[in-house]
Structure to design on (298 residues):
């Protein structure tokens, strides 16, 4: 289990910000084995700073990071897979050679690194590109190579900063499948993304960060359930004025009238709807992660 506790970080200021900038103000969350955790927030919210502290690239002013119940150390981080937001590939190096090279840096024997590289090339659809230089690849394929570099040494934890940025839907599915396989093997996966529909589809849990603070965290189901207080009623071809006096708002699309309300007696609303016309839908409407995000950071 990876535990991030009360991380605080302030960057030194300049002429325009003499007091410095608070990047993190008590960030904390936990990622369990086999859990995919979506870390979301606006640009500058603190996502990348948090990931860099976990990987030892930056040092926190206070707070702690623990792995399996003990303080996270250098040897632990060597067994992590990290994909930074700013990609770090050697542009003139060939794809397969590059992945193998990073495997060797993590202590893998040459034959083991080659086997792992070949497997990843096939899984990520890069086998035909293995002899090309990185600079000859499209940005999407470079992204796949960067992920292969993070995966080659069979890491115990994956920390990925915007791994799906700039990818087409086919590449997104390929990367998502690989990450899901690692999760099923017990690997905790943290990734940041602005693609909230993708986070909602893939992640078990989500953390929403705003201005260096965690403003919401929990499973996707729990976050949606906590905001599920809007009743949605759809009535086909109702009698005029059927919703007069009821709380909420009514929208009309053709012969369908939709009432959305967060208050009132639901049984009375149902009786009115049944009397007025054919009820096609009656139930609590769960918000999307995008709607939860907008509400949390407002």
């Amino acid at each position: 289990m990876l535990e991030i506790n009360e991380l605080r970080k302030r960057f030194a200021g300049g002429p325009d910000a003499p007091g410095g900038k608070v990047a993190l103000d008590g960030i904390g969350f936990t990622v369990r084995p086999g859990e995919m955790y979506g870390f979301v927030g606006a640009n500058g919210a603190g996502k990348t700073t948090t990931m860099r502290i976990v990987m030892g690239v930056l040092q926190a002013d206070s707070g702690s990071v623990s792995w399996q119940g003990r303080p996270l150390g250098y040897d632990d981080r060597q067994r992590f897979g990290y994909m930074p937001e700013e990609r770090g590939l050697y542009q003139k190096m060939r794809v397969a050679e590059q992945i193998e090279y990073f495997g060797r840096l993590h202590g893998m024997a040459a034959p083991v690194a080659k086997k792992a590289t070949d497997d990843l090339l096939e899984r990520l659809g890069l086998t035909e590109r293995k002899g090309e230089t990185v600079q000859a690849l499209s940005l999407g394929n470079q992204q796949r190579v960067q992920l292969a570099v993070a995966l080659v040494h069979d890491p115990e934890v994956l920390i990925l900063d915007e791994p799906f940025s700039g990818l087409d839907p086919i590449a997104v599915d390929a990367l998502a499948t690989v990450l899901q396989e690692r999760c099923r093997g017990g690997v905790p996966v943290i990734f940041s993304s602005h693609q909230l529909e993708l986070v909602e589809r893939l992640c078990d849990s989500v953390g929403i960060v705003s201005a260096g603070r965690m403003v919401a965290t929990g499973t996707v189901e729990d976050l949606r359930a906590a905001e599920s207080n809007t009743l949605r009623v759809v009535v086909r071809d109702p009698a005029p004025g059927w919703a007069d006096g009821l709380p909420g708002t009514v929208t009309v699309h053709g012969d369908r009238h939709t009432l959305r309300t967060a208050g009132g007696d639901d049984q009375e609303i149902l009786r009115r709807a049944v009397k007025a016309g054919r009820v096609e839908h009656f139930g609590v409407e769960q918000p999307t992660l995008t709607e939860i995000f907008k509400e949390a950071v407002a």
Observations:
- The longest strand covers residues 21-31.
